[in-house]
Specification:
315 residues, five-stranded parallel sheet, 12 helices, binds phosphoric acid mono(formamide)ester
Length: 315
């Protein structure tokens, strides 16, 4: 098993991860040794704070050691390819690789050239499976396991957001309606799979939803011919604050994958309001979900069941 694409995950896979994430969350005091004597190679070709720290901490909590490589200070700065860099880690004996890149298809290309487990830690504008899983797990906890029929509005620069894509894929598998909301400039031209509807008017898009996720304008992913909108205007039209949140269902909470631009996509007052915001719960859950992902990928096959299968085969 590899963790490359959100679309590869079945509902059963997702719920299995949630179950184990919940276990790790409920047992933070316990020492885990699943990855004792293992080394995880973290290949971060693109900057990160949350995903990097939480994949590192998840590995450490499970007893592993870490080797970290980023463009600064490695031979990537001399032009070495991402694939060759992955081979360096493999030749030096890492047991799994976590890959973040702005280049689409690199995680799957690495996965094809190695027998090691590979985890996608964010890939261009197309996928961020671990973020999608931790967001879904946060909602799963919030709605006490009942996601079927609930609606979420994902608001802002949806077009450049891999998080929006992963959430649409994963949340729709769990029975949620996913709305994409943003200015025309930031909406995909065609409704992607997993998305129920797209809205160019924020107040229409968030009307009656059970949860809202705001997104950062991803300046670094704008094409050369794409202009940054006027930020005051953008906040007026799409920024979330306590007043706008009243359009959603009573009790609805806001989320954000972070990093966030305070007072651009959301007010600080709302983001930091523990009664209305799940943002810091998402951040905490990243650790437990990534522990569960490592476990899923790296646990040894159960000896008894392997023996049973062998015996069955002989009969
Ligand atoms: N949410 C997320 O991917 O954050 P980082 O870019 O800091 O890892």
């Amino acid at each position: 098993m590899q963790f490359i694409a959100s679309s590869d995950l079945t509902k059963t896979d997702i719920l299995k991860i949630f179950k184990r994430a919940q276990y790790f969350k409920n047992n933070t005091h316990k020492k885990h040794s699943l990855l004792k004597d293992k080394t995880i190679g973290l290949l971060f070709f693109e900057d990160s704070t949350r995903t990097r720290v939480s994949f590192e901490m998840a590995a450490i909590k499970l007893g592993a050691k870490i080797v970290f490589v980023s463009p600064k200070g490695s031979s990537i700065s001399k032009g070495e390819s991402e694939l060759d860099t992955a081979r360096v880690l493999e030749c030096n004996g890492v047991d799994a690789m976590v890959v973040r890149t702005s280049n689409e298809m690199i995680p799957s290309m690495i996965a094809k050239t190695t027998k090691l487990p590979v985890l996608n830690a964010g890939e261009g504008t197309i996928d961020h499976p671990s973020q999608g899983l931790l967001d879904a797990f946060t909602l799963y906890e919030e709605f006490k396991g009942k996601l079927n029929g609930k609606t979420i509005a994902i608001v802002g620069d949806v077009k450049h957001s891999r998080v929006a894509q992963s959430n649409a894929t994963i949340l729709s598998k769990l029975g949620m309606d996913v709305r994409f909301v943003g200015p025309a400039q930031f909406l995909p031209t065609r409704k992607p799979e997993g998305v129920t509807s797209m809205h160019k008017k924020c107040d229409d898009g968030i009307d009656g939803v059970d949860a809202l996720m705001c997104l950062r304008i991803q300046k670094e992913r704008l094409d050369a011919d794409e202009k940054l909108p006027n930020l005051d205007r953008y906040f007026k039209d799409f920024g979330l604050d306590h007043k706008r949140l009243e359009l959603a269902k009573k009790g609805a909470k806001i989320m954000h994958p972070m990093p966030m631009n305070r007072e651009v996509e959301v007010t600080s007052k709302l983001a930091d309001d523990p009664k209305k915001s799940l943002i810091f719960e998402q951040m905490k859950n990243g650790l437990f979900v990534r522990m569960a992902m490592y476990e899923q990928l790296m646990k040894k096959p159960h000896k008894t069941s392997a023996k049973k299968t062998a015996k069955k085969g002989k009969k």
